[in-house]
Amino acid sequence: MDNESMRGMMPKRWLATLGKLANLGQDRGRIAGEGWRGGRLMAGAALLGVALLSGCASTVTTEVTAFRQGDWQNDPPRTYAFDRTSGQEPQLEDQTYEQWLAQALSGIGFEQVARPQAHYLVSMEYDSNSRLMRIQETSYVDPWSPGPYWGPYYRPWGPYGWGGPGYWPPVTTVRDVPVTQSTLRVFFKDAASGRRVYQVTANHRAEGASLQAAMPYLIRSAFVQFPADSGRPRRVTLPLDPNDK
User: Fold this and answer.
1) Is Lipoprotein among this UniProt entry's keywords (predicted)?
2) Domain positions in the chain
């Protein structure tokens, strides 16, 4: 006897109960994000603390920490030049990142000038490293769907009798994913005294990311608040550029 025939033989109060349970299952599916039907909750992804630079991610999250001299208050004039050692010729990659940094500094009121006229000397460092990170994924099955051991036409005995919602225990899998951490550090020195007055570090971690993909967001996030409170880590979330998807 199929499920429709069985439902036709049930009392109306049973059918009402089944209807409520079906609605409950749908509500739970909406709350769970991907739903109960084969949905996956990326519990381990929270350990990364990041948004991916691929797939359906719409934001990029960066961890930012700044430090500054106690008596420094972003003193004018806000003019700067990039600080390089004598005879150092920047690589093309360095030049590209400096252009992006110059745009970010312009947005907070800084003007790039020749070194002899600069109030501040600005330098930057960046690096990235990759490693495997172990994450845990938990899958939940729709309680109204056929279970893995009962075949397509049968349901287990549950709290509501034969044909009611069953309970399939969650399935947990562990896997290793390649995660790249990209880091940017920007330093400000007072040109006259040579004293470092401000520095900011931005970190981004993501599965399958790269330094080149992360750099625009690292630079922008480093100056979302400027100057930031000294020694207080914070997370900055920026919208993902559609061209980066």
Assistant:
1) yes
2) 41-239
